[in-house]
Design a protein that fits this description.
single chain, alpha/beta, Alpha-Beta Plaits, Molybdenum Cofactor Biosythetic Enzyme, Chain A, 2 domains, five-stranded mixed sheet, four-stranded antiparallel sheet, 8 helices, 9 strands, 37% helix, elongated
Length: 251
């Protein structure tokens, strides 16, 4: 058993929203709204418990990474015989916030159940589900479908590059290309600022082996990517930033 290794992923803004619902007797709802529940303010306790739960998720779920939170929010909608709970969790991390959002909803609903169980034995938690998640390469990436790419590399590393490019949908060609990827020294061109961001990430992963790193920029209307001759660095580049290449070309 093991957690997912996210050490080579860049930190990006991510968020998740979740939803849950509990059904109660109408007289229980009235008692909650009128402040007659013996254990106290149910709605305030529900919100607070949900926010606290986001901070404890990794302690409850053994394969969930401990991650920082930039924002956590719990909203409620009280009906005649239901209370609906909505969570929003946001942060800048290497992995998403789905489990934090879902845990927040679950604990908020359980708090309602716990505070009202002495006066309502009919309560039913009916639904907990993820509403949406944002962030990560599945959202900000762009396919290379239809993009013609020329590759220059030694035979072994060429296979690595071509494997990634085919997975991204690129068409490998020798002429009439709009993207050129080379391993080793390239003809001079002015690198874009994104090169600095890429190299910071790659250096943090391979500080003892990092030398030339990566250069990205345009030359003669062609997107050029120059890669250090190191398989691990090349793989880390594609795993982290490969889905961005379509954005660079279309941007």
């Amino acid at each position: 058993m093991r957690t997912v290794d996210v050490s080579n992923k860049p930190k990006t803004l991510r968020s998740a929203r979740a939803y849950g619902r509990i059904r109660l007797r109408q007289e229980t709802i009235r008692a909650i709204l009128e402040g007659r529940v013996p254990k106290g303010d149910v709605l305030s306790a529900c919100r607070l418990a949900g926010i606290m739960a986001t901070k404890k998720t990794s302690q409850l779920l053994p394969f969930c990474h401990p991650i920082s939170l930039e924002h956590a929010e719990i909203n409620l909608k009280v009906g005649e015989d239901t209370i609906e709970v909505f969570s929003l969790v946001k942060g800048i991390e290497r992995t998403g916030y789905e489990m934090e959002a879902l845990t927040a909803v679950c604990v908020a609903l359980l708090t309602i159940y716990d505070m009202c169980k002495g006066m309502d034995d009919s309560m039913l938690i009916e639904e907990v589900r993820l509403l949406e998640k944002e962030g990560g390469k599945s959202q900000w990436g762009h396919s290379l479908g239809g993009i013609k790419v020329k590759v220059e590399a030694g035979q072994e590393l060429r296979g690595v590059l071509e494997g990634y490019l085919k997975a991204f949908g690129a068409e490998l060609v020798e002429e009439d290309f709009s993207m050129f990827i080379k391993v080793g020294a390239c003809e001079p061109f002015e690198p874009w600022g994104i090169s600095h961001v890429i190299n910071q990430q790659l250096f943090s992963l391979f500080p003892s082996r990092f030398k030339e790193g990566v250069k990205v920029g345009m030359r003669g209307g062609v997107l050029c990517v120059c890669l250090q001759e190191d398989e691990d660095i090349i793989r880390a580049f594609f795993e982290n930033f490969g889905m961005l290449m379509g954005n660079w070309l279309h941007g």
